[in-house]
Write a structure and sequence with these properties.
about 375 residues, alpha+beta, Double-stranded beta-helix, 2 domains, four-stranded antiparallel β-sheet, 9 helices, globular
């Protein structure tokens, strides 16, 4: 544990410099430390929610004393004249000193982009195992978080079984298509998904705001010729575009496209979002790509429209590149889930012979991530 001499009060008490257990040296502002206190008057013991607002913290908050005692950091704040205890390990995991700006289009550490080479390492879980074992569920959800999709095998062959998949981690998101939708050939379909035509890899419902963040497709019958499912990592496609054409990448992140759906009576959905979406710090956070639902793009200036369309075309070519796709054919009782903000899905055309019946539904990624994080937190506490 760092010695007392390794803490320094700086900037007239408005910050400290400290050597932390992970070997890093970090500076922390006094107001940040006070706002992130974990004492019982700042955070509710039961749920850890903050009990005070920033307005309750004096504007001229500063540190008048800092020392280690029994392995914990004790800081005295003025003008409150309060001493609050901090865990140095928590500070080590939440340091912000030295954060450097990152290249536009960076991805979070728990994201792994991929192409066709992933075929041998698709995240696969057994329905029975993930239903009974928290460890098996954790491993499968981890794969979905890391790669943006995953398969389940060995599920029941019964209508509505896809709801049991969603219940593993969260809840169904109901839309105008209902709690679930049938994917099988129809006469006069309201959506091309209900035909035997092949479909370009796409994200679903880009005309919604927010889009459904997860999609589940569950197989009940599949004796038709063809109809293989395909998935493409939209984040990897965006990375390839950025590597080949930085200006094109920038145009698709800077300008919004328009998406629209009005294929059912009483429904007219519209959204305006970039095809490649970045957070303010440049993190790659979303892909919206669906040729069937793209409306007239009007937010791009005349001077940039030709280059925008060239980038749009190239992104589509990358997505269509067979070296990008992972392909598989579902058997009855098998299903797969995709992160609809990242992974594009498609299917190859299939013939009228035999039968092909899948059911689909939407869910929300926050439920999946919450379930996974709660299991991981429990594992850490048990270690």
């Amino acid at each position: 544990m760092p010695a007392k001499t390794e803490i320094q009060i700086i900037d007239e008490g408005h910050a400290i410099a400290i050597a932390l257990p992970n070997g890093t040296k970090q500076r922390f502002h006094a107001v940040w430390l006070r706002d992130n206190a974990w004492d019982e008057t700042t955070r509710a013991p039961g749920n850890s929610q903050r009990l005070i607002t920033l307005g309750d913290i004096p504007v001229d908050t500063r540190i008048s004393a800092a020392e280690f005692e029994a392995g914990m950091l004790h800081l005295t704040f003025q003008p409150e004249n309060r001493t609050i205890i901090y865990d140095p390990n928590w500070l080590a995991g939440h340091g912000y000193d030295g954060n450097q700006s990152k290249a536009s289009g960076w991805t979070a550490p728990d994201i792994k982009t991929w192409d066709a080479g992933l075929n041998a390492s698709i995240p696969i879980g057994d329905f029975g195992a993930v239903s009974r074992s928290q460890e098996a569920l954790r491993d499968w959800l981890y794969g979905v978080r890391r790669y943006g999709f995953g398969k389940l095998t060995g599920g029941p062959v019964e209508s509505g079984a896809l709801f049991k998949v969603a219940e593993l981690f969260g809840y169904i998101r109901e839309t105008n298509y209902g709690k679930h939708f049938e994917v099988r050939t129809e006469v006069n379909p309201s959506n091309l998904a209900y035909t035997g035509l092949g479909l370009q890899a796409h994200t679903d419902n880009p005309y919604r705001d927010p889009v459904p963040t997860l999609q589940i497709l569950y197989c009940l019958e599949n004796s038709a010729q063809g109809g293989e499912n395909m998935v493409v990592d939209g984040f990897r496609a965006a990375e390839r575009l950025r590597e080949e054409n930085p200006r094109g990448f920038e145009l698709l992140t800077r300008y919004c496209a328009n998406f629209e759906y009005s294929g059912s009576a009483g429904v007219c959905l519209r959204s305006r979002r970039p095809m490649i979406e970045l957070a303010p710090d440049g993190e790659l956070v979303g892909i919206r790509f669906n040729n069937r639902s793209t409306a007239a793009i009007t937010d791009v200036p005349y001077e940039d429209m030709a280059d925008y369309y060239a980038a749009y075309r190239r992104l589509g070519e990358i997505i269509d590149d067979t070296s990008m796709e992972v392909t598989f054919k579902l058997a009855p009782g098998e299903s797969f889930i995709v992160d609809n903000t990242r992974v594009l899905h498609a299917r190859k055309g299939y013939s009228g012979a035999g039968s092909r019946w899948l059911q689909g539904c939407y869910a929300d990624k926050d439920g999946l991530l919450s379930t996974l994080s709660a299991i991981e937190l429990q594992d850490r506490k048990a270690a």
